[in-house]
Amino acid sequence: MGRTQRKRRHKNLLKFYTCNNEKDLILLNSWLAKEGVRYNKKLVLAVFNDTGRGVLTKKKITAGEELINLPLNLTINVTSLLMDVVFCRVFLENKIPCLHKYNCKVTFQSLMAFYLVYLKSQGNECKWYIYLKNLPKIYTVPYFLPNEIKKCIDDEIHSVIVKQKNIIENSFYIFDEILKNTIPNSDIVQNFRSNFSLCNYEWAYFTVNTRCVYMDLTKVIDLKNIESSILCLINDNTKISLCPYLDMINHSPNSRNETKLLVNKEVGITPINNLNEKIFSDVRFSIYTKNNFDPYTQVFICYGDSHNLKLITEYGFYLPSNDIDFVSFNFDKINIYLNMVGSKLSNDQLAFISNHGLNKELYIDLRGLSFNFYGLLMVVKYYYSQNVDISRLIYSAAVCSDDRVLIEFIKPMVKERLVNIQASLSKLSNFSKCFILDNCINLMCQYVKILEKFIKC
């Protein structure tokens, strides 16, 4: 009995369980090894109480150790799409001139999501079948909240969801139109057409959104002269990739790491019309940690310094005590407030504000007003003051931003924002709790904390 109790206490203390012996993960690890992936032998997959599935180290890892090293051909990147002849034919052998009609109309992330649906529609015939099978079935981003809850969450969160929805629905319409007009010259394309739905596309979009890593391939491919390729559809860059196993390592803002593209000296910069898998057989992608990790702790990497609004809407998790969180204020709403309190901006003031970018990055964080917010209020109060150089006054505010007149002037609007958030939180308390909603509530409570601190200062 005593031994059993000690084991239970030990298990509770660790707060994780390893899952490398699960059938699907055994297949995944075998597939990764077969395809030439090399990852640190100290690492195993585990499920943690606080973060879900992640990566555990069984022995101490020291700064400078490589975590994972995989061949470029085992990442889904821009070359994967360009070298997939059948996928490219969907666009190139079409009843409509889609390369011209939809030139610069979609993001690369959207095109990657479209490609992911294409791969998944092939079932176990696909090279990536085992990897795709181990991807999450659902994602914990607010995008997937019921509409009645979305109506109650804070405007900041809702605004991001609306932008995501517009991107997803607009690109879905484009791809759906392209698929409907493609020439079905194979069973693969037929299956692709029958499997392409908004639901499947949303899953694919957030798979790319939550799991991709930064990968710059300009050292190995020449992305010029793309007019006759599928890349002419995109309106941004191609520097993202899906990397099996690496995408299972969770995020921590305290982690530091470095990625490297390891290129054989004989590999030159290849034009996109000369791509083939053999060229990249000696190109590998590697990630090193700059942290130390004790035995039987979770290994983390950093996705970049991100505030919680981005973390919950893009990745689906919330970090407590995130000091870089802030509450944004829309310039148009500030302008309405100024009109209400009799401080209407003149055309000269509006021009000055626009020319100096003071209508952007208007927020309050735990330290107080942002530089631009403070500068905007200075224009409101001191633009027409005699013997005042408004530009010099604003840029001296970087070291002296405690003008009580300005702070008291804006407090009523801040209090109104606070009241609105608290009212939304009250409405949300009527809904059944879930992980996604809890993240939104946590962020809104952080907003309350920030605004209350500002008002009390």
From TrEMBL:
The organism of origin for this protein: Euphydryas editha (Edith's checkerspot)
Gene3D superfamilies for this protein: set domain protein methyltransferase, domain 1 (3.90.1410.10)
Annotated ranges, domain SET: 41-304
Gene Ontology MF terms in the entry: protein-lysine N-methyltransferase activity
PROSITE patterns per the UniProt record, alphabetical: SET (PS50280)
Protein name: SET domain-containing protein
Top-rank taxon: Eukaryota
InterPro entries per the UniProt record, alphabetical: SET_dom, SET_dom_sf, SETD3_SETD6_MTase, SETD4_SET
